[in-house]
Every structure is written in structure tokens, then in C-alpha cells.
Amino acid sequence: MRAGHDGPMSDAPSSAHVVRYTEADAAGRLHSEICLRNGPPLIAALAPWLSGASGAALEIGSGTGQHAAALSLAFPALALHASDPDETHRRSAGAWAQTLRVPPRPVFELDAARTWSDRPDISALGPLAAILAINVIHIAPAAVLAGIVRGAAARLGPSGLLIFYGPFRQEGIPLGPGNAAFDARLRESDPAWGLRAVGEIDALAAEGRLARGALIEMPAQNHLLIYRKAR
Fold this sequence. Notes:
It holds the Pfam family DUF938. This protein has 231 residues and is of the alpha/beta class. It has a single domain (18-229), classed as 3-Layer(aba) Sandwich (Rossmann fold), CATH 3.40.50.150. The chain is 35% helix and 21% strand. The protein has 7 helices and 8 strands; from the N terminus they run αβαβααβαββαβαββ. The chain has helices at residues 33-50, 66-74, 87-99, 120-123, 142-155, 177-189, 198-207; strands at 55-59, 78-81, 128-134, 156-166, 168-169, 196-197, 210-218, 222-229. The protein is globular.
């Protein structure tokens, strides 16, 4: 899954649905202009957190795979694996890795709403340095969020990072008009979707001994929400 509508800070909706993907090209690559726009600020904001990290990492819901490939280039000490439940998305992620000459790595078929942390192929990666979900949890049922956090609690190594990116609800801070309208459209499309509350994620994370490390404002009413596993 992937969605996004990043750009300058504004009241424009921060995200839109996967229909923004182009048709796959001859190499199997899906294209998202949103990934091109939000990639540089995302890498810049993650640099203080990931520049010193090494080991295996996992992106959940990689969509086109553009982010996974770009992050692999930006943080080469991380062996970042893409994953997605959709075969077309997985093929695109592999094609983007090849295009950008990222070291070849398996792209996992992974539905985060199901138990995934004890799968042999995931366990074989060892303790993970980071797990990322970029523009995923608002276009997925709550079971996906819960599954991501549960899996992170099980698979992250000591001081490993769980990183969410997208639009969120924050207690005491009204949604901007754009995100409020977007949230309403999501819920109309599927009642199980919608912007997740930071407090809800904090509570799930705490159950897995994951402490919030940062909530970082990003362009177009998005945020990075970062948790660190206890040592």
C-alpha cells in the first residue's frame, strides 16, 4: 500500500489513494510522483536516526518500491528489504532496486495484519535495525497497525527503530481542513480506514516496550513518528 500528496506546507490533503500510481512500465516499475516529492525531505529527516544504523531493515507496504530503493542508497549500511502483499507492487520494488543498482535482496510477500514476525524468512534476517511503514496505516484497517507494532516488538533488536510516516491525529490539535476532508473520504471509502491517533499508537507501542523517540513535522501536514525499542 502506498499513498501520499506531499508538497509545501498547506491545507491540501496530505495523502491520496494508490490510484495515483502509473501503469507499470516495461521493466515492471510503478511510478509515483508523490514518492519523488517526499523522498528528499524524508531522507533528510531520517538521517539523524539512520545514518549510524547497520544491519537488516524492513519496509512494510512498500507500494512502488521507490522509497525502499532510495532509502537503500541513502543509508547503505542498512540492508533494507521491501515488502508488500500485492504481487505487482513487489515486482515494482524489485525493478526499482535493479534500476538504482541497489544490492539485490528478497522482496517479501507480507500482510501485516497477519502474524509475520516468526516466519522463517523474516526470522532469518536476524534482529532488525529498523522497521518502516510509509503512508500505510491510514489506508489500512486497525489490524495492520496492530500487526506492525506487534511484529516490531518481536523482531527489532535492542534500540531498533519503528518508523511511521504519514498524516496523524494528535490530541488537542484539530485536523487542518485538508486532512479532515481526506480523513472523511477515507472513512467513506472504507470505515476501517482513517487517520490514526498518535496516542493510540503510543499505547500499542508501550505494550511492546517501544518508547516514542520523536514526532517530527514534515511537509503537507505529515509527520514522522519514531519509536525505539528498549535495550
